[in-house]
Amino acid sequence: MATKKAGGSTRNGRDSNPKMLGVKMYGGQAVTAGNIIVRQRGTEFHAGANVGMGRDHTLFATADGVIKFEVKGQFGRRYVSVETA
């Protein structure tokens, strides 16, 4: 015979692991080629000059320089570019 009564199940108790998304380097900061600038789901930010986009929409620097964020176009798209010296 059990000495402890069976506990009922719960519908809670689940959570997903953090994905570490967001802007990793800001405007005016110096970057080297390969540095991750933004981790995102979808194209919240678009790749500008000297910036590449990975398979998961991660933006990274393709050249050494200084980061510049700008809003362009009639749809107000946000672009990230790296200005080389």
From TrEMBL:
Gene Ontology BP, a term: translation
Any Gene Ontology CC annotation: cytosolic large ribosomal subunit
GO MF entry, a single one: structural constituent of ribosome
Region (Disordered): 1-21
Transmembrane spans: none
PROSITE patterns from the UniProt entry: RIBOSOMAL_L27
Domain of life from the UniProt record: Bacteria
Keywords attached to this entry: Ribonucleoprotein, Ribosomal protein
HAMAP family in alphabetical order: Ribosomal_bL27
Similarity-based family: Belongs to the bacterial ribosomal protein bL27 family.
Name of this chain's protein: Large ribosomal subunit protein bL27
Organism: Acinetobacter kookii
Name of the coding gene: rpmA
